Amino acid sequence: MVGFRWLWWFGLAAAAIGGASGGDVTYDGRSLIIDGQRKLLFSGSIHYPRSTPDMWPSLISKAKLGGLDAIDTYVFWNLHEPQPGQYDFSGRHDIVKFIKEVQSQGLYVCLRIGPFIEAEWSYGGLPFWLHDVPDIVFRSDNEPFKIENEYQNVEKAFRDKGPPYVRWAAEMAVGLQTGVPWVMCKQDDAPDPVINACNGQRCGETFVGPNSPNKPAIWTENWTHFYDIYGNITKIRSAEDNAYQVALFMVKMNGSYINYYMYHGGTNFGRTASAFVITSYYDQAPLDEYGLIRQPKWGHLQELHAAVKLCSQTLLYGLQTNFSLGARQDVSTQFSTRSRQLAVKLDSPEIWEECDEVIPVFDDTSLRSELLLEQMNTTKDASDYLWYTASYQQSKDSQSVITVQSRGHVLRAFVNGVLIGSGHGIYRNTSFTLETTVTLNRGVNNISLLSIMVGLPDSGAHMERRAAGLQTVSLQENQVLKNLTNYSWGYQVGLLGERLQLYTEEGSNNAQWNNFNSSSQPLKWYKSKFDAPEGTDPVALNLGSMGKGEAWINGQSIGRYWISFLTPDGSPSQIWYHIPRSFLKPTDNLLVLFEEEIGNPLGISVDTVSVTKVCRHLSDSNPPPVASWKRETLNENKDNGRRPKVRLHCPSKTKISKILFASFGSLSGDCNNYALGSCHSNNSRAVVEKACLGKKMCSIPWSYKNFGGDPCPGVPKGLLIEAQCQ
Description:
Blueprint: E1 10-12, H1 14-17, E2 25-27, E3 32-34, E4 37-39, E5 41-46, H2 56-65, E6 70-74, H3 77-80, H4 95-104, E7 108-112, H5 162-175, E8 182-185, E9 195-200, H6 203-206, E10 217-223, H7 239-252, E11 255-264, H8 297-310, H9 312-317, E12 335-345, E13 353-356, E14 367-369, H10 375-379, E15 385-394, E16 398-406, E17 410-415, E18 418-424, E19 432-440, E20 443-452, E21 470-477, E22 480-483, E23 489-493, H11 496-499, H12 505-510, E24 514-515, E25 524-530, E26 539-542, E27 548-553, E28 556-562, E29 576-579, E30 589-595, E31 605-619, H13 631-636, E32 645-649, E33 656-665, E34 668-670, E35 673-675, H14 684-692, E36 697-701, E37 718-725
Helix pairs in contact: 7-8
Keywords: Glycosidase, Hydrolase, Signal
Signal peptide: 1-22
Enzyme class: hydrolase
């Protein structure tokens, strides 16, 4: 019996691995209780394998500075047990090291144990070998499989087997006697004492509430953004909407625990992204893909957390009374601009070498079948690629129409070594048909069809029944249709270059490479070397000149790329691909690409990423920063403690080098789009430059005296400053 090692539920593991001192964790109808004290907790999801160990301390530190009390993560079974009995807890997979880092910084850990996790992760975190366990039915009440997450989404598909499965899961979890509460995400009927929780964007409006008066209101996934897929335009969720929903959840639902999904999304390295999900994950989160603070989202939520915690005891133990604060309460926080700077050009043909991927023919294959095999069950997730090959005898030269129906995701069709056409599906509609005219020669014709997956599915009922790859193949010649579906087919799992490990130093050195030749031949391997950019800024690979494929740095995959799949506005879904600093050596870093289409590697560059501009806008109606509300702050500075301020803060190792704009007056717009108004203090720039130039941070109080008086009495005024960080 397999699949019983871990459960899916979301647990607050404070007693064992939470804060520095641990503690007993229980709950009542108001909140979680730690060491006998009710707690209002803000948590953020940071997935350890979507970043690197050298990034973890900084990510956790920035989360804590942002006002979080806990870090949430899934456990990724298919990383830790890729084959039965073979375990991996090294490098990015070292969950123990990650949790100890959280503990060392004094935060709690919220563990979503899995192993079914969804999470836009390949196969929802399940290792593919589970598919081959006899009589297995994923996500159902059967002996081989009892592991779950967000089950209510699919429960109805299993009819009478769904509810008993939920009850069994709850009883088994509670029976483990872990000493911490258990939570079922999106399970309104979670059996006692398991807490039912809300996932979504607007749980302040949509949550049905705890299913018992003795359970607290918990929000396990407050989406800070939306995961991106190839071909779709990025959807942005504003900081204001996110914060408003948190406040509404706390007031309307008496919410006491909110987890931001994601607080840092990170990178889907290698082939870990699920079907059609791009390599960058939740880049619009408060901490972006590279771990940089994204403003204004991070700062806006920081102000919210600080305000809530100032009155946490009243919220947790007092009687609730609602009253209006007015039509709108603005929060002033810093905006930042993230930029990429060219560090290394790779535009010289002399630094590139190439190697053609071999297009197999039927006689080269050892795996044979008289029908079209399903792709996932054939590759066992060893590769995105599966070759279907056939040898077709033709009596004379002729023009024929070949039609291929595929269940996804991408198809490259070759006849006699020549590309005759390509096609692909889309997210949640992966099936498509490729129909094209082909010239068949007299004699034997080699048909080679490369079926490509862009990630395994990650959700839904009966994942074990999902199918991919080719469904039907036919040839039509002179009105005669020949069905090749039940034909003699030969198969090759993966690419020859994958088998030779051309992306590693050893595999690359053992292969025969040719000088770069800007030909129009698809299916090519490219390699080059470069030195790491100086400094500590994050590094990204600009692949805007390529088509579709995968990239490796020193043998480590930085993920799939698909530049040619454009969004409706004509833009690629992703151009820059994160290269963690820990992947790099000071010099001679090996870059290897497998390009399926016809890309131009001479357009590739290695760039650095940094916050280069900061901006802040303050109107005369803005409240002062929450930090100034504290009694000790008021005592320190009685004159300016409660006065609104414009505070600018450059990232680590940079200072304010230039004031790009400064105006105290009736300006129009905000940090996204601004202009001088009808009145303006002429000394605005001089005042700001004196206070800020050469400093990492500066603070300018709202004061007529600072700017030589009121430039336009009786007119609403604002103060907006944009500065360059260098």
